TrEMBL record, chain A:
Keyword field: Membrane, Transmembrane, Transmembrane helix
Domain of life per record: Bacteria
Membrane-traversing stretches: 12-32, 39-58, 108-135, 147-164, 171-189, 195-212
Keyword Membrane: yes
Official protein name in the record: Uncharacterized protein
From TrEMBL, chain B:
One protein family per Pfam: DUF5058
Superkingdom of origin: Bacteria
UniProt keyword annotation of Membrane present: yes
Protein name (record): DUF5058 family protein
Keywords: Membrane, Transmembrane, Transmembrane helix
InterPro entries xrefs: DUF5058
TM spans (from-to): 12-31, 52-79, 116-138, 159-183, 203-224, 236-256
Amino acid sequence: MDYRSKMHFYGRIFTVLGIFVMFLIPVVTWIVTGIGPDFTRVATGVLALSIIFLPGGIVEVLTYGPILGTSGTYLAFITGNLVNLKIPCVMNAREIAKTQINTEENEVISTIAVASSTVTTILIMGLGVLMLLPLKPILESELLKPAFNWVISALFGALAYKYFKGHIKYTIAPMVVVIVLSIFIPDFVQANVVIVILIAAIIAIVFARLIYNKEMKKGEVQ
Amino acid sequence: MDIQTLKEAWWLYLIGVLVSLFIIGGALFFAKKAYIRSKELKMGKEMIKKTVISSVSFSILPSIGIFIGVITMAGLLGIPLPWVRLSVLGALHYELLAVKIATDGITVLSLNIEDFVTIAFVMTIAIIWGALFTLFFFKKYQSKVIDKVDTSNKKSFANLLFQSVFIGLVSAFFGDAFSKIFSYDIKEIQNGLYTGNEIEGSTFVPIIVFVSAFIFMAAFDYLIQKKKMTWLENIQLSLSMVMAMTLAVLLGIGGIY
């Protein structure tokens, strides 16, 4: 079995175990207390949320799978916090390591990036739970609130430099579209980031293709 | 057993510890496999070290943000359930929405054990789709679609294709920050639950944070490229984030939120 097939094998086992682990709290609570869930509310709740999160979940695998690589994808889709942590973390790591997507080197780098990020998050959460009493007033203080409110903007602002640098002509079209969407339907943009990512990515790809074709043609003529 | 005892029960904390160990174990397992592979591919140790350092330093601030999510939900659900939920396939906005949908009208005072179990099931089941899709279809998707894209030729469109996906992703988050200039409704959260009240407003702070992080990155890049301060390379992103977030705090002190 080659490396990638092995990673699919282990990744699938990890995913099944991960799903099992996710159910520990509700199932164990049910067993210990003898009180089960309200099945009608579970069904309606799952249905309502799935309308929003099922397409999002599939789009995320399709979009982020190539970026995360084989084991990175299995690991990230069990540990979560994809768009706000794992994806930018991998983007940052591959920029530093200068690896190309769909190569074995990139597979290694993205796996190590997702794993390092995962361990960091779990340790910080564990530490936070242990030190909850002294930490709570600090983290909830009005003074620090703006910092953590806008951590995602800080993260993507910093990443934007890496991705826009040297690619300005490819950023114009998606940026114009998101600016127009933001002006006219700001609430939609904020509530549907996954959809906006998809729209912006498709526009970026289409315009990149047009620019690429034009440059190829120019090259042929010259 | 009453609900207050239940949501802070020792065995729920034990599950939290087990889940954390499972995740760390899985991460280390895959990292070790990748490391062995890196040796076979003759990738330098230095590159792996750089990846670990940059990923760890990069993840600290967002992880603190995720932990604040645990505190946000702790009022209603106690510590262990949000802790586990945000450790395995979780995201704060999803969890809050799940609580809202599963328990409409319930408050911290009226919450009972049945509500708690119901919330836990809804939170767990409805987020599972991405993992299930990965389990059943990712291998096929990779061989039928991703592998067809050849990135080995640097002049091919394939590299530009993935670059464009990243540009789209970053643009979307620019839009998220920029749109708040025009409308930003803060959903009130009390005791870990959306109250249904919304404060309508707008704010310039996220776009200032976004643009300043961009500028700080550019400045660090200048120091790395022109002044040869290469030691900054692994931490330039984290530093830019810290500086932009500090700016948000300073704006807050000045009364700008």
